[in-house]
C-alpha cells in the first residue's frame, strides 16, 4: 500500500477542504443557495482555466481545429430540429401533499437499492458503501430502509430492473412504481404517475415575447449551424474539426452529487467532420499502441463489469471500436485525462448499450472516471453519422455538404423523374405541390419500382403524405427512366465524430483522484494536482520577517513572474509547517524557502509537495527546475538531479 | 496624411472583410438569424481569446486579483435586491398595426436628428455623415426625411432634447412623442405610449416553475455575494480586488449596430474593495504621469465636447477625478486598451452627468472609443460606494463588512437606545416590531434629537413606517443616553471601485481602428492588429510546391510551435501576393517565405504586414525576432536590426 492510500479516502474531508480553500461554493449561499448552481473561487477558477488551457493546446492547437464561440441563447426552431424540444427530458413524479418532485428513474433506483441493502442486512451479509461500485451510484437517503428479507425471486427482479434503469420509458417507470409500491421515501406518501419534463431552460427573446428560445443544452448545435462557413474557411479541405468551449445548461429535476450534477456547466466539444466512406485517421499510427481499459457492449450484456484491456489498435482492427477516427479520439481523450491528473486505474471506456444510443449513432463510448459516487460519465465520444447536418439541412433547405472532386470522372446511370408540369397543375390542383415533392424525393430503389409499375400498368397509384386517398399519375404526365451522366464530383454529407467533455465532472474526479492525507497526521490533507494544472505553482516562504530577507522575496517573485509561474507569497507569522500544510490543501506543488543562508550565497530551498523532499540551489537553478517540471513534463527526480539534496530537521512540524 | 489614411474608411468594406474571413457572423444565419446574436468564427474566437488572455495578465496577474467564475442563472431575489428587477429597463412603443416595437429614446433621437438633417438640407447646408460625431450616433433609416426647413426656435428645441436624451423618463418620452408628432418612421402610422420593458431574460429554475430566475445582466453580483469568502481567502487583508470574465445578457428591444449592441456578450469586471476612509492606491505613483483625454461633467454641461488633456496625477489632485484608486484604474484601462490596438487619438474618458449616474455612485467615468457609429462606451469605471454590499447585507442579514484592528484603541461616547421590551409588547401589540426597528435604526444625529425630546417632554412622538398615525413612546419605556465604550476594531462596509469591460464593443472598435486599405490598391484591405493579440502570428509560405521545399515547412512549423507562436501554412497555388493579401485581411502580422535559397543556406525571408518590409536571416534568428516582437513588445525596427534587409522585386503583385 502506497503512503498515499494509508489514510482511507473520505469524501467529507475532501469537501471540507474544497470549501475551506474556496475551490468552489454553492452559488447564492447568503440567499440560501439554489441547488445545482456553484461558483468557483480563486483556486477553482485558476484550476479550471489551466484545464481549459491544456485542453486548447492538446486538442485545438495540436490538431489545428477551428475554434468557434457561439451563442447560448438558441431559438426554438433550431432545437426543435435537433430533437431536443421533443427528447431532451426526464420523467418526474410529484407528491401532491408535500409538493416534492422526484426524478422517476432515480427514485426507482434509490428505493430498490435501499431494499436490496435491507435484504442483505437481514441475511446477515456485510453492507459496505464500497461494495456498490456501480456506475450509477449516487448519494441517497432513503428513510424507508428496514432490514427486511426479500424473496430470492424478487431480489433477482430488482437486480434486473436496476441493470436496465437507463432504458425505461415514462410508462415503464410508472408501471414499476405501481408494481413495487414505491412512495415518497421520506414520508411514505403516494406519488402521481411520471410526467415528462423538458430539461432546457426556456426564455423569450426580444420584447414581443413571441420568439421562444432556450439556453443551449450543448455547444454542438452552434458548430453544426456554422458548418458551411467553417468548410469555406478551411478552403473546402476535408476532414476537419471545429471545437467550442463554453457554458451549457440543463434544468435538472433535483440535482444532487455536488459538481457532478449541476444546472450550469462548462463543456468542451469537438465536432470532427469526416467522409463517411473513409474514417481512417492520418495520425492513428502515433497512438495505436496505447493500452486502454474497455467495457464493451458484449461484456455488459453478459451481466459483467470486467474490463478488457487492449491497445486501441487492436480494438479498432477487431472492430470492437467502429473506426480509426473514433479510436484516435478515444486515445487522445485518455492522454488528456492523464495529463491533468486522472488516475489511469480509475478510467475506463464504456460502450453504450443499444437502448442508450441514439438511433442514428453508429458507435459511442463514454470515458468514465471512478469516484466515491461510482463510475461517472465524463467524456462522451460518439460517431453521430450524418444526422445533425442532415436534419438542419432538411429543415432550412441549406446545402450542408462537401463536394469532392473525383480522382476519375465516373459514369452514373440513375433513374430520373421527368414531370410534365403544365399538365400536373390542372390535374392535381392544390395537391400538385405535395405530389411533385413526393415523386422527386424517391430513392433510386423506389424509382426502379415506380418505373416498373409505370411500364406495366401505364400509371402510378400511390399514397402521398398530405393528400387524401390514393393518387393516380398516368404515364402521359410522368417519365421515369435511367439517364446516363458523367460525374466529376462526389457530393456527400459528412459524418461527425463528437468528443464531448463535461469539464466540471472531470474537475471533481481529479479532486478525488488527487486527494489523500499524510499517514503521520490524517488531518494533513494533500491535493496532488499535477504542476501543469495546479492553480498556483509556487509558494514563496520567507523563514522570518527579518528585513534582511525582504529583498529576496521580490527578487524571487520577479524571476517567477518572468518564467510565467503563478506564485503566492506567505509571509505570515505561522510556522513553516503550517504554511506548507495550507498550500498542500491548495495543491501547490512547490515551495521556495528563503532563509539566512540565502542572504549569504543567494541559494534557496525547493520543496516538493507530495514527497516533502527538498533540494538546495541558486535562485536561477531552482526557478529553471520548477519551470521544466511544470511545463515540460519532466519528473521531480530528473528535474532536480543537478541540485543538492537538503536535509531538514523540523520544518514540517 | 499617413499612408494608412489615404483610402477613406468604409464600414461596408470592413464588415465584408470581417464576414468573409469569418471573424464573426450572425448566429443561426441558416435559420434566418436572430437579431443581436452573433457567433465568432476561428479568427474572431482566437482574437477574443488573446484579448481575454492579455486582460487576465494585465489586471488579474499583475495586480494579484482573485478571479471567480460565478453562475449566469440568478434567482429573482438577488436581482430584486440589486435593483435590476425594478430599474434595468428601457421604454418601448408599439405600433399596433404593424406589430413593430421601437425603443422610445432611440426613436425620438432618430426622428429629431432626421428632421434636423432635412432642415439643414433645406437651408442648403452640407449634410455629411462625418459631421455627426456624436457619442449617441447610431445607424438610422428614417423614411420620413424630407428636406423641410424648421423654425429656428424648433431647431434649438430639438437640439436641446437631443442633448438630454439619456435622462428622460418614460413619461417624458411619451410627452415628446406627442408634442413632436412622432410616428412609425417607416409607415407614418401612430404609436402607443411608451411602456417599460425589463431587459433581463427571464426563466424558471427547477421543475416546479416556482423559482423565478434571470440570466445575469452583469458579472458583478456574483462577486458581491462571495465577498465574505473572498475576504477570508485573502486572509482578511484589505484592499483587494476580485475579477470575473464571462457572458452576460441584455434583452435589447431592437438591437442594431452589429457587435456594439447585442443580446449576449462577454464582460470582464473587476470589483476593487477599498476602505472608504482611504482610497489612496499604493501604485498610483507608477502611472501618475500618464496623459489622458478627459471630457468632464463641467465641459459637457457647458454644451461643449472639447477634450481636456492632462495627467491622471493632475486629474486626481485637482479633484476632477474623485480619488487615487479610481484614477489608478482609469490609467490601467488606458494602458490595456492601447496594448490591444486602440488608437490613442480615438479614446477619451467621459464623466457621467448627474442624471446618468446612479444615486449612490460617487464618481463614474466611461472609456469611450470613437467609431463610425460615434463615441462608444466600452469600459465603465465607477466608484459605487458601499451600495451593493449594503443592500445584500440588509436583505440577507449576513454581515458583509471588514473588521480592521485600530492602531490605538479609541473611546467612543455614542448614544444608545435601551428599550423596555416587557412593557413594549403590551403597549404597542402588532406595532411593537416596527416601532422597535425604527428606534434602533436611528443615526447618532437623530438619536441626539430624540434624547432631547425625551428629556424635555417625557416622551417621543413620531411617525413610524408601517404604523398608522403618530406613535407616542413615554420615557418609562425607553432610555436614550450616551454610553462610553472602548473600541479596538473599526468595522466598515468597503466601498467598491468597478472597472467593467464590454469586450465585444472593444473588439469591434479595435477592428475599426486597425482597418485600412493600401493606397496603391483600395481593394487590398489590412487589419493592423497588434502581434500580441493577432489571431495568427505567422503565415508560412513556400514559394512553390517543389518537393525540395517541403522539409523546411515542417522544420519551420516545429520551431514556431515550440516558440508558442500560432501560425498557418498556405501552400496553395495562389501567387505569393494573393496569399499575403488574404492574411493581411486576417490581421496576420508576419509572413515567412521559403524559397530555393532556403535549401542552400537555411535562410528565410520575414515580411512585416503593415510596411511590407522584408528581412532575411537564418530560421532561428527569424523565429526569435518574431517572438520578441510579438510577446516582448519590441518594435519591428529594433527586433530586426541585426537581420539583412531584403529587397523584393515583384512579390507583392
- CATH third-level topology of the largest domain in chain A: BirA Bifunctional Protein, domain 2
Number of domains of chain A: 4
Could you give the order of strands across the largest sheet of chain A?
A: 3-10-11-21-16-15-14-12-13
User: Care to count the β-strands of chain A?
Assistant: 29
Strand % of chain A is: 25-35%
Low-confidence parts of chain A:
130-141
CATH superfamily of the largest domain in chain A: Bira Bifunctional Protein, Domain 2
Largest Cβ-defined interface: A-B, 74 and 74 residues
Distance between the termini of chain A: 24 Å
- Helix/strand-derived category of chain A reads alpha+beta
Specify the biggest β-sheet of chain A: 9 strands, mixed
The pLDDT mean of chain A sits at: 91
Q: What is the tally of helical segments of chain A?
A: 23
What is the rounded Rg of chain A?
31 Å
- The CATH C-level class name of the largest domain in chain A: Alpha Beta
Instruction: Characterize the overall form of chain A.
Output: globular
Quaternary structure of the protein = homodimer
Amino acid at each position: 500500500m502506497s503512503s498515499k492510500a494509508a489514510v482511507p479516502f473520505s469524501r467529507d474531508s475532501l469537501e471540507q477542504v474544497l470549501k475551506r480553500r474556496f475551490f468552489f461554493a454553492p452559488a447564492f449561499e447568503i440567499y440560501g443557495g439554489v441547488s445545482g448552481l456553484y461558483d468557483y473561487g480563486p483556486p477553482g477558477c485558476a484550476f479550471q482555466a489551466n484545464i481549459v488551457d491544456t485542453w486548447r493546446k492538446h486538442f485545438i492547437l495540436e490538431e489545428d481545429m477551428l475554434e468557434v464561440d457561439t451563442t447560448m441563447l438558441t431559438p426554438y426552431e433550431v432545437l426543435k430540429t435537433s430533437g431536443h424540444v421533443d427528447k431532451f427530458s426526464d420523467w418526474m413524479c410529484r407528491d401532491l401533499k408535500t409538493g416534492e418532485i422526484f426524478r422517476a428513474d432515480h427514485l426507482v433506483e434509490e428505493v430498490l437499492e435501499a431494499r436490496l441493502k435491507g435484504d442483505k442486512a437481514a441475511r446477515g451479509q456485510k453492507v459496505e458503501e464500497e461494495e456498490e461500485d456501480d456506475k450509477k451510484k449516487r448519494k441517497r437517503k432513503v428513510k424507508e430502509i428496514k432490514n427486511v428479507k426479500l424473496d430470492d425471486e424478487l431480489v433477482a427482479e430488482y437486480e434486473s430492473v436496476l441493470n436496465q434503469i437507463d432504458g425505461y420509458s415514462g410508462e415503464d417507470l410508472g408501471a414499476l412504481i405501481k408494481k413495487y409500491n414505491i412512495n415518497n421515501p421520506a414520508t411514505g406518501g403516494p406519488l402521481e404517475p411520471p410526467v415528462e419534463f423538458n430539461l432546457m431552460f426556456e426564455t423569450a427573446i426580444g420584447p414581443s415575447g413571441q420568439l421562444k428560445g432556450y439556453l443551449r443544452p450543448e455547444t454542438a448545435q452552434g458548430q453544426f449551424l456554422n458548418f458551411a462557413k467553417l468548410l469555406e474557411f478551411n478552403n473546402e479541405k476535408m476532414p476537419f474539426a471545429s471545437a467550442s468551449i463554453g457554458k451549457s445548461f440543463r434544468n435538472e429535476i433535483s440535482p444532487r452529487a455536488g459538481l457532478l450534477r449541476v444546472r450550469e456547466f462548462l463543456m468542451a466539444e469537438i465536432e470532427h467532420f469526416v467522409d463517411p466512406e473513409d474514417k481512417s485517421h492520418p495520425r492513428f499510427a502515433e497512438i495505436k499502441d496505447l493500452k486502454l481499459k474497455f467495457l464493451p457492449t458484449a461484456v455488459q450484456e453478459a451481466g459483467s463489469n470486467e474490463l478488457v484491456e487492449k491497445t486501441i489498435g487492436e480494438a479498432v482492427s477487431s472492430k470492437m471500436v467502429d473506426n480509426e477516427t473514433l479510436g484516435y479520439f478515444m486515445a487522445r481523450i485518455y492522454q488528456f485525462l492523464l495529463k491533468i491528473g486522472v488516475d489511469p486505474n480509475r478510467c475506463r471506456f464504456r460502450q453504450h448499450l443499444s437502448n442508450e444510443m441514439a438511433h442514428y449513432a453508429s458507435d459511442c463510448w463514454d470515458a468514465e472516471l471512478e469516484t466515491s459516487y461510482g463510475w461517472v460519465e465524463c467524456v462522451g465520444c460518439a460517431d453521430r453519422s450524418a444526422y445533425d447536418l442532415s436534419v438542419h439541412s432538411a429543415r432550412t433547405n441549406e446545402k450542408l455538404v462537401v463536394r469532392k472532386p473525383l480522382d476519375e470522372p465516373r459514369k452514373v446511370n440513375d433513374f430520373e423523374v421527368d414531370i410534365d408540369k403544365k399538365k400536373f397543375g390542372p390535374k392535381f390542383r392544390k395537391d400538385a405541390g405535395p405530389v411533385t415533392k413526393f415523386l422527386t424525393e424517391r430513392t433510386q430503389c423506389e424509382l426502379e419500382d415506380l418505373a416498373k409499375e409505370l411500364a406495366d400498368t401505364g400509371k402510378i397509384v400511390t399514397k402521398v403524405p398530405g393528400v387524401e386517398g390514393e393518387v393516380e399519375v398516368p404515364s402521359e404526365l410522368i417519365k421515369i427512366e435511367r439517364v446516363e451522366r458523367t460525374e466529376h464530383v462526389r457530393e456527400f454529407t459528412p459524418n461527425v465524430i463528437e468528443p464531448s467533455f463535461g469539464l466540471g465532472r472531470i474537475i471533481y474526479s481529479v479532486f478525488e483522484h488527487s486527494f489523500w492525507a499524510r499517514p503521520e497526521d490524517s488531518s494533513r490533507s494533500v491535493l496532488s494536482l499535477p504542476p501543469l494544472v495546479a492553480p498556483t505553482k509556487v509558494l514563496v516562504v520567507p523563514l522570518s520577517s527579518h528585513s534582511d530577507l525582504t529583498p529576496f522575496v521580490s527578487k524571487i517573485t520577479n524571476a517567477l513572474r518572468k518564467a510565467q509561474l503563478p506564485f503566492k507569497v506567505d509571509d505570515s507569522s505561522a510556522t513553516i509547517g503550517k504554511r506548507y500544510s495550507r498550500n498542500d490543501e491548495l495543491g501547490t506543488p512547490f515551495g521556495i524557502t528563503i532563509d539566512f543562508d540565502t542572504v549569504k550565497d543567494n541559494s534557496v530551498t525547493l520543496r516538493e509537495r507530495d514527497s516533502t523532499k527538498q533540494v538546495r540551489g541558486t535562485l536561477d537553478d531552482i526557478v529553471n527546475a520548477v519551470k521544466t517540471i511544470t511545463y515540460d513534463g519532466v519528473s521531480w527526480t530528473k528535474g532536480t538531479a543537478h541540485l543538492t539534496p537538503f536535509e531538514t530537521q523540523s520544518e514540517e512540524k
